[in-house]
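Hi Y.,

Following your request, here is the sequence exactly as I used it, all 417 residues.
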Amino acid sequence: MNQLFDKKESWGKRKRKSQQDKALAYMVKLGYEKSGHVKAMLDAHKINPANIKTREDLVCLPVTSREKLVEMEQLDPPYAGLENPDISIDRVFTSPGPVYEPHLSEDDHLWARAFFAAGIGPNDIALNAFSYHLVAAGLTFHNGLRKIGATVIPSGSSSSQIQVQLIKDLKVTAYVGTPSFLMAIINKAKEMGHDFKKDFRVKKACFAAEPLLPDLRRMFENDYGIDTYQMYGATEVGDVAYECSEKKGWHICEETIVEIVDPATGKNVPNGELGEVVVTRLNEIFFLLRFGTGDLSRFIVDKCPCGRTSYRLAGIAGRVGDAVKVRGLFVAPSQIKMIQAKFNNLPLQVVVSRTGHEDILKLRIEKVSPEIGSTSWEEGFKKIFREICTVRIDTLEYINAGGIKPQEKLIVDHRQY
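Below is the corresponding structure, written out as C-alpha cells. Let me know if you'd prefer a different format.
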C-alpha cells in the first residue's frame, strides 16, 4: 500500500478521496485474505469484500468499540485475528485492558505532519515528555519528530526537576507532552529560581492525551510566549488529526478515514452535526475497520485559510455517554462550557423535556448583569448557542444570581421513555 503522505495536505478533495478509496479497497481485500476475523465478520454480514470500494461503503460494517476490541483479543489472543501473519511486526505496544497493538515500522509518518504544521523542523531541539515504556506515545512521537528533522530528547516521565535541567542545559525549543505536565515544569522552574520565558528557549508546544483548556492555552501563549498546538489520536489507530497555525479545528490525517456517526446506529450524520468519531487507519498490518473512539466531534468542511484541503474536526466535545440527544442532535456538557466561556463564565443549565413526541430544550440563565435578557443580548446568545450546539433553543428562563448551584449538572434530561 502506498504511503499517503503529503505533509502540506494540499491535495484536491477528489484526489484525496480517490487515493483513500483505492487504499481502503485494497485493505479490505487483503484483510479478507489474511485476517481470520475480517473474513468471519464479512461472511457473517454476507458482505463481498469486493463491494467495499469507497469510504461510503464502510457503513455496512459494524463499529468496533475499545471495549469490544478488548473482548475480541481476550477470546483470540493476542491480536483478535486482525493482524496480517505474512508481515513481520516491528513493534508491539499495549494499553489498559490490556489491548495489544502491532504497529507500523519506523518508515511510517505517524505524527510527522502534526509537528510540521506546528512549525517544528531541523532547527528545533524537542523535549518528548511522553513515556517510552510499553505505550505507543513516546516512540511514535519520537519518530514523527525525527521525520521532520528535529533533534529529540527522550525525557519521558522523568521528574519535573530533571525536565527543567534538560530544557536549560540542552537549550530546548519545543515541548511535546501534556499541558498539565508543562505547567508543572514551569512551576518547578519558578521554584528553582528561573524565569521560564526569559531564561529558556521553549517557543512551541504540541499537546496530546488530555484537553488543552482555553485559560491554560492563553497562559502559555500570553505569559510564556509558547505557541501551542493540539494533536488527536488513539493508540489503536495512531494519529488522527492535528491543529495548524490557524487553530480553527483539527486537520484529519490522510492515512485515516474518519466518519462522524450516530453511536446508536453506526450511520453517518450530516456534516456539521455532532457524533462519534469512528476511524479506519489505512494499512496492511492491522485490519481494524471502523474503530469507535467514543469521542464526540463534528466535521468542519470549509477550506482552512492555511491552504490544507482536508476536512477538520471541531475539537472533542466530550464522550458518547456524557451527551444528550435533542431532536436527533447531540448536546454535550463541553459545548455548554464553551458557551459559558464566551459569556464570562455565565452560569447556565440546559433542561430537556418532552411534550407529546417533541423534544423541548430550555436554557436556564442566571441574570448576573442588566443586559442579560435584552433583545440584542438574546439574539447574540442564541446565535452563538446555535453555532456551537447546532440545535435551537425553545425557551429561555432567567433566574436570580446564585440560582444554579455549582454542583448541579450542566444538562438535565427530564424525558421518560
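The chain has three domains: 13-103+236-321, 112-232, 323-413.

Thanks again,
Q.
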